[in-house]
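User: Fold both of these, please.

Assistant: Here is the first one.
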Amino acid sequence: MVELRKRPEPPSDASQPPLKKSGSSTSAKPRSGSSKTPTPSLDRAEESRKPAVGDTIQLEGFGGEIETQDGEKTNLKKLVDDSKSGVVLFTYPKASTPGCTTQACLFRDEFSPLTATGYSIFGLSSDSPKSNTTFKTKQRLPFTLLCDSNATLIAAIGMRKSPKGIVRGVFVVSKASKIEAVEPGGPAATIEAVRRLVKSARASSSERGTNVVDARETPKDENSKAGNASLAGDDSAEVRADIAAEVADTAEKLDEA
């Protein structure tokens, strides 16, 4: 008699190994994807934050370290601490170009009246100390020029262009760390913003009965003479500002070149 034998049945879990491989590969993808996505979103959030008038900022570490045209290291906190009422930063794209020269000279000519209430004025750009030293010397600028080669402070005050470059404008922060002005604009617009603040400060001082230094009593150097004429009601500065604004519209194209 022939004995019939049954074939052994295949193991029921023979298909399990590939399922495990498939499961492990699918679970690995979300982990790798999730580790990459948060970074760009955080960068975009960082870029979107810009200062606004009325904000109170934390000066410690704000904008990082910069240097003067003489190569001295400094920062915004130190500048504010050393001022009487606050700091004015006017930003310019490139030293010694037509629009930037017009802007710097407007601040030069009205330096005395603009600083009469205690503001300290500084020019701010990404130019090298050498370029800013030449600019300051040639134009006889009475204020310090700040060199922000990495544009960290420029970006912090909202005056950096994307992807690169500098917006012409003005930023003012008070002694109490409160932003009083943050305004892009041409040469005439930037100085006008500071004039309004000085006028307001004078009015407030008068109401409190406090004394404000009169620019007409400052030393009679060339810069203060020009400022005194403006303070006394001479409208020549206003005329120069209007002409400068028209010149700046054309000069801006040269700045971008």
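And the second sequence with its predicted structure:
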Amino acid sequence: MSNSTYTANGENGDPGSTEGELNQWKHRAPYRVHDKAEGFKVRYQGSCHCGKVQYQLSREKPLDSKYCHCTTCQKIHGAPFQWAAIFHKDDINFTHGHHDLGWYESSEKTCVHKLPCKVSCAYCRTPIMDEGRNMILLFPTLIDFKDPEDRKNFDISCHMFYSRRVLDINDGKPKWTGLNDSSDLIADSPQDAVNELKRKRQDEEQEKSNEQK
């Protein structure tokens, strides 16, 4: 019986080196380490469960924060939903363990670093982030919030894929059947949000109609 060894970075280079073509990802955001001369202002710190992967964040508030109820998030996180906060790739600075990361691209089920992909600690398997082509989705439960006000900065704006929920959350936030702004609002979504969506879609239909004339 043969033994197999899990390589932290899959087919994406030597985990102990930053040289060579296969290691070029380590020099690009979000994985490149910021130089002190860049003036990276540390606002938050986060880590995986085992502590091998640690990072800093410079932005006070995420670009957006949401709960995603899609079945992929439910399975990968082993939870009813995913809490995700959106940041620019340059907003993060890995201080430990960016050589100890593993990737998973869910559409092809591959561990190759192919965008968009899911990033986790290769040792304890804590999900670290989802890396998109332009942004990253971080998980606020990994952040060490110093006070309640910091935690409030990550309050969600809406729920996505709420039609696939496994539990109801009656928080009065907008609840989209799929992606926000491109699906329908359901459940206890605020009436003003429902009305605004209706007006927006009526305007879009009117604009389409005018273009066809």
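The CA atoms of residues 176 and 185 lie 5 Å apart.
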